Amino acid sequence: MFKHYIDEELSLKLVEPEDAEAIYQVMDESRSHLRSWLAWVDGTESIEHTKEFVQMVMNKFADGTGVSTCILYQGQVAGLVGIHAVDRKNSKTSIGYWLGERFIGKGIMTRATKAMVDYAIYEKGLNRVEIRAASENLKSRSIPERLGFIQEGNIRQAEWLYDQYVDHVVYGVTAGEWKTNGQNRGCPLEW
Amino acid sequence: MFKHYIDEELSLKLVEPEDAEAIYQVMDESRSHLRSWLAWVDGTESIEHTKEFVQMVMNKFADGTGVSTCILYQGQVAGLVGIHAVDRKNSKTSIGYWLGERFIGKGIMTRATKAMVDYAIYEKGLNRVEIRAASENLKSRSIPERLGFIQEGNIRQAEWLYDQYVDHVVYGVTAGEWKTNGQNRGCPLEW
Amino acid sequence: MFKHYIDEELSLKLVEPEDAEAIYQVMDESRSHLRSWLAWVDGTESIEHTKEFVQMVMNKFADGTGVSTCILYQGQVAGLVGIHAVDRKNSKTSIGYWLGERFIGKGIMTRATKAMVDYAIYEKGLNRVEIRAASENLKSRSIPERLGFIQEGNIRQAEWLYDQYVDHVVYGVTAGEWKTNGQNRGCPLEW
Amino acid sequence: MFKHYIDEELSLKLVEPEDAEAIYQVMDESRSHLRSWLAWVDGTESIEHTKEFVQMVMNKFADGTGVSTCILYQGQVAGLVGIHAVDRKNSKTSIGYWLGERFIGKGIMTRATKAMVDYAIYEKGLNRVEIRAASENLKSRSIPERLGFIQEGNIRQAEWLYDQYVDHVVYGVTAGEWKTNGQNRGCPLEW
Amino acid sequence: MFKHYIDEELSLKLVEPEDAEAIYQVMDESRSHLRSWLAWVDGTESIEHTKEFVQMVMNKFADGTGVSTCILYQGQVAGLVGIHAVDRKNSKTSIGYWLGERFIGKGIMTRATKAMVDYAIYEKGLNRVEIRAASENLKSRSIPERLGFIQEGNIRQAEWLYDQYVDHVVYGVTAGEWKTNGQNRGCPLEW
Amino acid sequence: MFKHYIDEELSLKLVEPEDAEAIYQVMDESRSHLRSWLAWVDGTESIEHTKEFVQMVMNKFADGTGVSTCILYQGQVAGLVGIHAVDRKNSKTSIGYWLGERFIGKGIMTRATKAMVDYAIYEKGLNRVEIRAASENLKSRSIPERLGFIQEGNIRQAEWLYDQYVDHVVYGVTAGEWKTNGQNRGCPLEW
Fold first, then answer.
1. Do D90 and E153 touch (CB under 8 A)?
2. Given a cut of 50, is residue A86 above it in pLDDT?
3. In this structure, what DSSP letter does residue F87 have?
4. Share above pLDDT 90 across residues of chain C, in percent, rounded to a whole number
5. Cα C109 to Cα C6: distance, rounded to the nearest angstrom
6. CB E57 within 8 A of CB E43
């Protein structure tokens, strides 16, 4: 029921239990695509795992440490985007996202992520937003780059991905930078 | 961020921690009006109590037993409406609401409550929605009556209200009835 | 060990873990009889479920929200009666009960329920006692009727019973009424 | 409500929240008497502490580790007796008790303790019951001695009592011994 | 990593998760030896049970109620010794221990237990240390006897050991006694 | 009791409740020095806060997410070093530390941190160790630099320090690198 309208084809819907099936479906049809960069794909063997995930993100919403949303493209669940590890003491958070394979190339993720940064900075009042991506995941890295995030580091062997360690590139933007530059940025929105 | 659009002047916004101040303000300016029928008004002595309330309703959202929303009228918090005591086993819930004094007489509550019944029945898939009101609270009783709920009982001395017991009138609507009648009902919307 | 003496053939015994077997036996021998009106019968597949139930009612006793007792008829467990959902804020509770099939017709349930109402009003100091029964369960409805409860409502589709919704009739009595009428009422005690 | 009848002047009543006031009163009027041997007396400064104690013993009842009862003498709370630290694995428990000063000398405690040993052995099915008393507390030691317990040890400096360590004498009885001797014991019942 | 050095061949290592395998191995190779006196041996069917045990003792370390250590003999886990049931109110604790069969006869346990008593009295500041052993377990009883503990009692049928009850002998030492005698005691260290 | 010996003047002692006073003292005498870079100094107003901190790190030890140690220099508590946020899934952790002002300039922190890296990699088997320091805190940054960590990033406005945001420099070392280079590194040990 609860949505944030982005534009005529995109909105973000707060994850509720009713969404588990649609989330599972779009993940399930894109497994080989998603598992390249997401460590949890193989462990999500059935909709029961997605229901546990939904419960977990609803708990995080309740305790104030995260907000996860379904990306609705023309009314359909296309993927997820959310803020995680909200740290009130240091006024910062990080954003995570994934998109079903057939929704790629429409600029969905850039617009959805921009909306989440707006939410984190304007509504939640946070000072810093971080995005981490595996260093070889160029598609994922293109999102913060298009949105004007600064590349701040290359964290080596930061994550175990099935059979190897991968490095993480860290991008950050501060509230000051976002408010100055964020509005009139012309972002080419291919993903 | 997360809203349900009702019409050009009304929407429902899922309660988040950022809303505590606005909720407290509208309650605080309507104390004498609200305490006639709401047992918690005198106990809400400062915004800290409202913050505890917000935490409580976010916990209920997370565990699936309730959903509380701010009624936004022309962008301002005008009151609250929510579903409570969601009972999946018996597929039913009850709706509660209150409105700041200066927002009365605009048909706000009938439209907001209609939207919550739609949410309970169409999105949550529940079979029965109940509304209880103190039997002498005619304003509150008019909401389920306008929305076509059936009066099912008069529960005597059901609630202790500061210094006396008040009776409750119980109204109910089933999913079958709502789906048949709900769409084309012409509701005069004064409250 | 802990009992409330009603008369020479009846007493109420606070449920303890040692009672699980006797409770399960009387329920098990009356399954087809009890499942007409009790939603939990089919789910109670073994004594393990009854042990979980006993633990649950002991937790309610500890947190002050309920008291469940075995009805002992000539020293044997004949059924259960208890107060549930004790609501101190509004000073009310509701009573639930069931009886093994072979104990029906001896006036057991009326006497046992009268004792629980006495306990709720005189010992716990509550102001209102409620009894709900499925509207077609005439045997169950006869208990509050014999004890002078007032019929207060007919809650439609209040409960999902295996394969259909059933309506609930709500009966209530207040402490004032009970103290006035309760003592010298001549109740014909067939159930 | 829930009592165990011992004889025409004595019964044991399971501790419920309603008993806190009477328990506090009898303790409060006997402070100087009780503090000689009970470490918690000085810490029980108001009825709030007794309410916490009642909650604690109700929690123990619910989790199966203890059962505490008010000793009712001619209908009045005279003291407490209970089983503690119920150890199902090794099938044993220990008994603790105290009596208001003006109830001493009537044989109350011996009869009440005998009833608790019966409860532990016959109803709970435990194999061993232990009673510990400070070695100089001759009144308390006389209870297990009259009831035929065996003195098993002298545990030195077992308890810190306000300003000094006191030794404990340990007494024990097994289910076998109790069943053999327990019935026809002629106990002089002065305390 | 964290060890207490006793002498050139013995040290005590605080139990950490990494130790589960070595603990399980030494227990597993000594099953028939250990089960004579330890009730948990048969229940420890796989390393998973030992991991649960390690988690349990780490929780006790965190909440201040116990400290368990691996006895390292020439760098190998030879058994366990720890303080349990730490009772700050009465300033006392008890010590438990076991040794793999092939490590017997080297005086290991006497030295390890002496170190734990030192830790309890000098570092934790406790006033009393207790050791309990089954009365027929002469090897275990020899430890407190060599260390100058006083035999304080014989608790009959204190423990259920697979198929029978066994009696416990209780030994105790006070901080005063230990500080006077503990230093220059010449203990023959065969076990 | 439980220590890791580094050299004749340095050891690491697992934090226990008995250490709270010494930790508080060394922190308290170095407040103005420590608060330049540690956000918790002003909030640690009394030893009660240090006791809560000790309880928190003992809980982390128990749940496997961190290990905190007192740095003992010539037997005195000189500061703390520990591993935090142990992430088994990705096999990594981070190290944090602080030193009392009068212990600076003796090479204490480099040796203590080296020991913690050894512990994390050799005993805990972790693959990556991270150290973060405020970018202007050159003393703190010198530790990972001396120990051969690689500088991986500069996280802007990563922490709120009383009245301003500070940037963090991230350093990392992998198990492979540490095992190759760690042994024969000649570290000048001034801090």
1. no
2. yes
3. E
4. 93
5. 12
6. no
Q: What is the pLDDT of residue C123?
A: 94
Query: Cβ distance C159 to C125 under 8 Å?
Result: no
pLDDT bin (cut points 50, 70, 90) of residue F152 is very high
Sketch out chain E's domains with CATH numbers. 3-180 (3.40.630.30)
> Cα–chain-centroid distance for residue F47?
20
Q: What is the pLDDT of residue F183?
A: 52
Tell me the CA end-to-end span of chain A in Å, nearest whole number.
26
Facing residue for E62 by CB, picked from F3, F4, F62: F62
Instruction: Confirm if D152 and E168 have CB atoms less than 8 A apart.
Output: no
A78 alpha carbon, distance to own chain's centre = 12
**Which residues in D lie closer than 8 A to residue C72 (C-beta atoms)?**
none
CA C67 vs CA C12, C38, C115, C175, E97: distances in Å: 11, 19, 13, 18, 45
Give the bridge partners for D4, in sequence order: D12
Residues of A with CB under 8 A from a CB of B: 1-5, 12-14, 16-18, 55, 58-59, 61-62, 64, 67, 69, 119, 123-125
- Contacts of range F81-84, beta carbons closer than 8 Å, 24 or more positions apart: F81/F12, F81/F109, F81/F112, F81/F113, F81/F115, F81/F116, F82/F15, F82/F57, F82/F116, F83/F116, F83/F119, F83/F120, F83/F124, F83/F129, F84/F60
pLDDT for residue E1: 80
Count of positions (residues) in chain C: 191
CB contact under 8 A, D61 and C64: no
State how far the Cα of B3 lies from the Cα of B25, in Å rounded to an integer: 20
- pLDDT of F186 reads 42
* Predicted TM-score of the model (pTM): 0.90
List, in sequence order, every residue forming a beta bridge with E166; answer none if it has no partner.
E159
- Which of left, alpha, beta for E150 (phi over 0: left; psi -120 to 50: alpha)? beta
Nearest-angstrom CA–CA distance, F172 and F152:
7
Q: State yes or no: ipTM above 0.85.
A: yes
pLDDT digits (tens, 9 = 90+) for D98-133: 999 999 999 999 999 999 999 999 999 999 999 999
Does D touch C (3+ CB pairs < 8 Å)?
yes
**Which residues in E lie closer than 8 A to residue F116 (C-beta atoms)?**
none
Q: What is the pLDDT of residues C74-107, one digit of tens each?
A: 999 999 999 999 999 999 999 999 999 999 999 9
Strand partners of residue F5: F11
